[in-house]
Write a structure and sequence with these properties.
Helix content: under 10%
Largest sheet: 10 strands, mixed
Structural class: mainly beta
CATH class: Mainly Beta
Low-confidence stretches: 1-17
Number of helices: 2
CATH topology: Jelly Rolls
Mean pLDDT: 93
Radius of gyration: 18 Å
Number of domains: 1
Distance between the termini: 49 Å
CATH architecture: Sandwich
Length: 275
């Protein structure tokens, strides 16, 4: 049975002072972008990590009115998301919040996307486990809005199973999710992503847009590490990740002091037109 050490444990104090464990694998200098969206991804090294978590104020959204979805005229071709996830045992996950349709108080489904709503995605696995994408139920207790402060985490809780929790603004969603590749005896990498996704554009060059996602404020971000059957929370500081700004740095505005960088904190905005 694994125990979880609080951020104020003796182990974390030692790590904070040295910034790294003696045997910690450092992240690579760069990774290639995958086309199809405007996104900033921070990716850890592949090491004894078993999860990631963070506290964030959800961004404001300004859509480009020229980018209406012709198939769904109440929606746009741009879609903000803010999520966590990882890669372990040859299986990728994306888990967090995306701008989604909702069920209205009268029971009808909104034509337009109106709130951030939890989603979970996994790829298939050599075990035979199939790929899955799912949303949280369309209930108001699972809707979050720009300006809400939430804490999200994704963590391995048993071999083949991860737990996703998002909570804030008096609401909470929790889901245990089967992922065969995620095991305590494997090494993995974990990520934090802010994005403007684009409808039906995966793998293609980004489409020009004036959409802006403004002032997502990460208050703190942590990695979870397995050490001697304990799970220890450590800062996701700027020495622990590979930074990916796709398609280019001009599309991102990042404000962070050295103190914020040491705690995985920053204020982040994205603009299709650039800054």
């Amino acid at each position: 049975m694994l125990s979880f050490c609080s951020p104020y444990s003796k182990n974390l104090d030692i790590v904070t002072k040295s910034r790294f464990y003696t045997d910690e694998i450092r992240p690579v200098d760069e990774k290639p972008c995958f086309e199809g969206a405007y996104y900033r991804k921070l990716v850890s090294s592949k090491d004894s990590w078993v999860g990631i978590g963070g506290r964030v104020v959800l961004p404001q959204v300004q859509f480009d009115e020229r980018r209406i979805n012709p198939k769904k005229p109440k929606q746009y071709l741009d879609n903000p998301s803010i999520y966590l996830g990882g890669s372990m045992g040859g299986q990728e996950t994306d888990i967090g919040l995306a701008w989604e349709i909702v069920r209205e108080d009268d029971g009808s489904i909104s034509g337009e996307r109106k709130a951030f709503r939890p989603f979970l995605r996994r790829t298939d696995h050599v075990s035979g486990q199939t790929a899955v994408f799912e949303n949280a139920p369309a209930k108001k207790e699972y809707y979050w809005y720009p300006g809400d402060e939430v804490h999200m985490s994704v963590r391995v809780i048993a071999n083949g199973k991860i737990r996703f929790i998002v909570q804030g603004a008096g609401k909470k969603f929790e889901r245990d999710f089967d992922c065969d590749g995620y095991r305590f005896d494997s090494q993995g990498e974990f990520k934090r992503v802010n994005a403007i996704d684009q409808v039906a554009n995966e793998g293609k060059p980004v489409q020009s847009t004036g959409t802006k996602i403004l002032d997502a404020e990460w208050k703190v971000t942590s990695l979870y590490r397995s050490i001697n059957k304990n799970i220890v929370e450590v800062p996701f500081h700027d020495g622990r990740y590979t930074e990916m700004t796709c398609p280019g740095k001009v599309n991102f505005q990042i404000i962070a002091s050295e103190e914020q960088k040491n705690g995985g904190a920053e204020i982040l905005s994205i603009s299709g037109d650039g800054f």
